[in-house]
Amino acid sequence: MTSNSRVARALALLLAPFVLVQPLVAQQNQAAPAETAPATPPVPAPQALQGEGEVPWLYRGSDVPVDDKWLFGEMKNGLRYAVRRNGVPPRQISIRVRIDAGSLHETDSEQGFAHLLEHLLFRESKYLGQAEAIAAWQRLGATFGSDTNAETSPTHTVYKLDIPDINDAKLSESFKLLSGMIREPVLNDANVAAERPIVLAEKRERGGAGQRMADLTRRTFFAGQRLATRNPIGIDETLKAAEGKGVKAFYQRWYRPENTVIVVAGDADPVLLAGLVEQWFGDWKGAGKPGVAPDFGDPVPPAGATDDAGAPAPIGELAIGVEPDLPRSLTYAVMRPWRPVQDTIVYNEGLLLDAVAQAIINRRLESRARGGGSFLYAQVQQDDISRSTDATFVTFAPLTNDWQAALADVRSVIADALANPPTQEEIDREVAEFDVVFANEVEQESVQSGSNLANNLVNAVDIRETVAAPKVVLDVFRGMKPRLTPQEVLEHTRSLFEGVVTRSVYVTPTAGEADAAALRLALAREAKADGSARLAAQSISFDELPRVGAPGTIASQQPLGVLEIEQVDFANGVKALVWANDAEPGRVTVRVRFGAGYRAFDKDNAAYAPIGEAALVGSGLGELGQNEIDRLATGRKLGFDFSIDDAVFTFTAQTRSEDVADQLYLFAAKLGMPRWDPDPVIRAKAAAELAYNTYSTSPGGVLNRDLEYLVTGGEDRFATPDPAALEQVTPEGFRKVWEPLLKQGPIEVLVFGEFDQPAIIEQLRKTFGALPPRDPIPADIAARVPAFAATAERPAIATHRGDANQAAAVVAWPSGGGVASLRESRQLEILTQLFNNRLLEALRERAGASYSPQVFSKWPEDLPSGGRITAVAQLEPEFVPVFFAEADRIAKDLAANPPTADELARVTEPLAQLIRRASTGNQFWLFNLEGATGDPQRVALLRTLLADYSQTSPQVMQFLADRYFAKGSPFRLAVLPEGQKLAEAPATGAANAQAGRADLIGR
């Protein structure tokens, strides 16, 4: 009850401004009189719910306790469903429709049809005309891409819908529209022709070196199985040949009630939800002959190989992939046939033993990598892949071209795990880690979102297993602790590396560095067990650690003026916002803001910014290195995320009520007594060197590497360091740059969640309050703001070394920054979403030129300027001028003509619902109040946040468009394949782009 009242108070805070602004908004919008909503027909009582004494369909053959918060139903037509009440976030319903068919169910001539069909169901259906689905869901308050989405995997297709602010009418309408999509899509040649270029654009954007290596890996590991040749995205030949008749035939074979599971979780009576499922899907009948699921096949050993019990799995298919811009990586897998299991408690105990065994090996491998090993990282992971294989994968990245030495090092650690049992101390350490995770899930059960619950059940159906309540998982784990012995863990370790065949792929940038024969010989060579990577398992107590300093003095403590948040100021200048609440049981978020952020860097030290993001935390604190910090965290939930923002550095952690005091010590100690271990710096430098060339493999990679640098007119602090710059990086240089930065600038600490507030304020006094006074940020650094690229007649050109049919384009307009104009920035977000909808319509729906063009706004609140609005799309090189023309046309039109009321509503309603949902969690309030100790305006502006994002007028949008789009020149960037030039701008825009698209496809 307390949690709900706190949510109500928070929502009241956001809703209050509507009373003040509503009359003005009403005058501005001059909206048409509201129509009377049609009466919602009554929902019939469900008839197919499974009752007491009946084993729910998901749990047949299992002794796992049924999660009785779910209600299960099985209808006469074969459709199965599961529904439950869930109020996180309030007034939302999450619906999932799973079809038991994916790319593995396609014939050779149908490759890509399962995914194409996913698109076509959004194209046109019984209750939705052509390309109306996105707008329809937006009018219901759903955000396209996050609230309305779908996925196609090798084994299933899932349609996902999250509807906020639900009521009876919206529930009924949602089920109606969804039933029309699933049961009666319009599958004809015209719709296939319209959707084909969008799918091909999606396929093109996924292409390049990474996709080539993914395809090679799939063909190698799953040789002889359907999975080897069934990528859900399909192949060009079958997609270009697709017609309405063929796609409809695939639909009729697989889209049938007996192949369908519907899952609904949300803030409504589950019996009502069951009734809606039955009302809209109960009379569904499949058309035509049902499909028969094909045999997915098994991994098989090479001809003549023996499979003697206990013998190593024979080595099968091997492949060497050469990609000049990809770093080295080697994966080998011990493969076994996948078989359905009885999802029993004993089976799950075995999975947990497997997980502990893997965790022990992975911790040893990580220790070896941290200590200067021959590989950057290495990991062992067992996985069941697409109901095709049960395999144990070993993946690592050699640091040099001596991949054989790295392979031998990795295998030596695994060989030791196979030959010798772990110590009980090692087991206990991993058990403590698992226990804290499972216990935390019990604590968090009441705030599990409906969307996650629905997704979990869908995934359980896919792998043919059950779902269990968090308490059941914890009880099973704690009940099996007598089995967690060195001998049992050893036996499970050995079983993980037993199989019918071993396969491997090595990716290298250098031709001739390896061949299949050398790889086979290296894998066949006996591995020598090396136990030197075993870790000391004794824990370290926080009580043994030195104090940060003499406890500080509280200078003032007073309410912030919003909710029950307290501001605590210490004599040393540290300021804290503390909010104890029980909205998220057992969970606490801690954030520490300090220093100058990107303002602290220039051309002389810029390379140390990304190295710092990777290595600063790992370089330790006090007498503790990274391994010691790991031991310190045993049995606790502690975090240590570090990021660099425009004008501030940030530590962030999600922790538990009982661990928040220790979390505060870690963060304060990092600032007050940092350690400077060289190994994390060397490792981060090596990772950056290995990764640098990968940016060139695609236009998206080039944008990630260069956009910030180019749009700021070449500011060195935003450049991704190249190998020459990285060559100058040293551990000594790292300390020289970062040591003064940790001492510089004000500190703000935010602690939001469930905790004992007086105790945490006292811990703040002993930790952050004990730090020495901070050095000021030098004036020249404090004054730095990002520049904006100079006006140019032609677009800037960057090149990539990926596929010749891949390109990207960017248009960016300068905007502003700072808290003083924060309300304007929120209105600008509405304008940005209007632009996004129009660009999506032009480039995706009309032209088929780009799969997911995006428009977004960046407004740095901690700086007085430096913001921008950016439009970006990946497309074919020939369509880059079309993108520039369309972006320019949309910008000018928004500045010249106000948007329609419906167009505005399709943006403001999803934004309003997004805020209402987010405001039920602590993260929302923390994000919007960070910085408030230094700028009290943020508190006052919080009260208008919902109104600012969801109340506007066409005239305001036109005014902002004129200010930001019509008054200045944008920055334009084209990312083209090496050797290609930018085509001339077209005489016409996207209206004729489809004709050009047809020519491109026909080549």
Automatic annotation (TrEMBL):
<comment type="similarity">
    <text>Belongs to the peptidase M16 family.</text>
</comment>
<dbReference type="InterPro" id="IPR050626">
    <property type="entry name" value="Peptidase_M16"/>
</dbReference>
<keyword id="KW-0378">Hydrolase</keyword>
<feature type="signal peptide">
    <location>
        <begin position="1"/>
        <end position="26"/>
    </location>
</feature>
<keyword id="KW-0645">Protease</keyword>
<dbReference type="Pfam" id="PF05193">
    <property type="entry name" value="Peptidase_M16_C"/>
</dbReference>
<keyword id="KW-0862">Zinc</keyword>
<dbReference type="InterPro" id="IPR007863">
    <property type="entry name" value="Peptidase_M16_C"/>
</dbReference>
<protein>
    <submittedName>
        <fullName>Insulinase family protein</fullName>
    </submittedName>
</protein>
<feature type="domain" description="Peptidase M16 C-terminal">
    <location>
        <begin position="247"/>
        <end position="432"/>
    </location>
</feature>
<dbReference type="InterPro" id="IPR011765">
    <property type="entry name" value="Pept_M16_N"/>
</dbReference>
<dbReference type="Pfam" id="PF00675">
    <property type="entry name" value="Peptidase_M16"/>
</dbReference>
<dbReference type="InterPro" id="IPR011249">
    <property type="entry name" value="Metalloenz_LuxS/M16"/>
</dbReference>
<feature type="domain" description="Peptidase M16 N-terminal">
    <location>
        <begin position="91"/>
        <end position="203"/>
    </location>
</feature>
<keyword id="KW-0482">Metalloprotease</keyword>
<keyword id="KW-0732">Signal</keyword>
<feature type="domain" description="Peptidase M16 C-terminal">
    <location>
        <begin position="730"/>
        <end position="907"/>
    </location>
</feature>
